[in-house]
């Protein structure tokens, strides 16, 4: 998930009010036959009912995606 | 999270992070001919030892888009295979959790979009009616979501066919999202 304000489903963060629920998602990778070198980031998912906002933070980088 | 990969058989053989799942013709290390499918499956250690030699490991052989041969048996519908027939099982543990959007596929080990070297891969989750041509992430086998529990098992049928002569190798990946 990469933030790009030019894409229609990506937005700058703004106050949409309190989400209906907040979920912590933990993507995982397990492999055999080779060691994984892909980075995996935890995601916070805010459910606003009509849409969800997924937020991912990696040090100084911040990604947000509306889905 | 703890992931335990096993080759199922009369006794299961754990596939550790440094082991390989080896697909052969009739016997250990015998070559599968280009365009044909595996007649035996083994766990090979990094040092080259046959780790599953005493365990009578399962074999799943692709016959057609909807058919399989289990352990050298007659052709049967893929969706009649049971959990214990699957060649591969992956157990996931980590407290109490659910899993969604899990995928299984093979690739070249460096880029999930790239096919493994000289290998065509077909996989299915037990209960599936059709094999998935899971040669990369785009064509991955989609696994069923798991509801909240402390331990989850995936049962996967797996069969390969060399596409060209030479050494064939690749990486198997399970990925998903825990919540």
Describe the structure.
The complex is a heterodimer of chains A (67) and B (179). Chain A contains no helices and 4 strands. By secondary structure, chain A is an all-beta fold. Chain A has a 4-stranded antiparallel beta sheet, with no helix packed on it. Chain A is elongated and about 45 Å long. Chain A starts with 20 loop residues before the first strand and ends with a strand. Chain B has one domain. Chain B is globular, with a radius of gyration of 15 Å. The mean pLDDT of chain B is 97. In chain B, strands 1, 2, 8, 9, 10, 11 and 12 form a 7-stranded antiparallel beta sheet that branches. Chain B has a 3-stranded antiparallel beta sheet with strand order 5-6-7, with no helix packed on it. Chain B has no helices and 12 strands. With 179 residues, chain B is mostly beta strands. Chain B starts with a strand and ends with a strand. In chain B, 0% of the residues lie in helices and 47% in strands. The interface between A and B is medium-sized, with 17 and 25 residues. Strand 1 of chain A pairs antiparallel with strand 12 of chain B.
């Amino acid at each position: 998930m990469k933030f790009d304000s030019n894409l229609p489903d990506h937005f700058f963060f703004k106050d949409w009010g309190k989400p209906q629920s907040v979920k912590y998602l933990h993507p995982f990778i397990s492999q055999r036959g080779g060691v994984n070198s892909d980075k995996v980031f935890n995601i916070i998912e805010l459910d606003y009912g009509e849409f969800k906002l997924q937020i991912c933070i990696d040090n100084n980088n911040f990604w947000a995606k509306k889905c | 999270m703890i992931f335990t990969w096993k080759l199922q058989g009369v006794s299961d053989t754990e596939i550790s992070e440094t082991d390989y799942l080896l697909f052969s013709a009739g016997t250990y290390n015998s070559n599968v001919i280009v365009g044909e499918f595996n007649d035996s499956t083994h766990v090979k250690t990094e040092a080259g030892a046959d780790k599953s030699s005493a365990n009578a490991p399962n074999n799943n052989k692709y016959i057609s888009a909807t058919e399989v041969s289990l352990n050298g048996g007659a052709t049967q519908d893929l969706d009649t295979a049971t959990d214990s027939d699957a060649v591969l099982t992956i157990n996931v543990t980590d407290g109490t959790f659910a899993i969604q959007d899990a995928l299984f596929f093979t690739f070249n080990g460096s880029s999930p979009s790239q096919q493994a070297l000289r290998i065509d891969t077909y996989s299915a989750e037990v209960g599936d009616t059709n094999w998935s041509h899971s040669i990369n992430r785009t064509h991955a086998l989609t696994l069923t979501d798991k509801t909240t529990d402390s331990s989850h098992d995936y049962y996967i049928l797996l069969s390969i066919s060399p596409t060209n002569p030479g050494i064939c190798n690749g990486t198997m990946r399970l990925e998903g999202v825990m919540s």
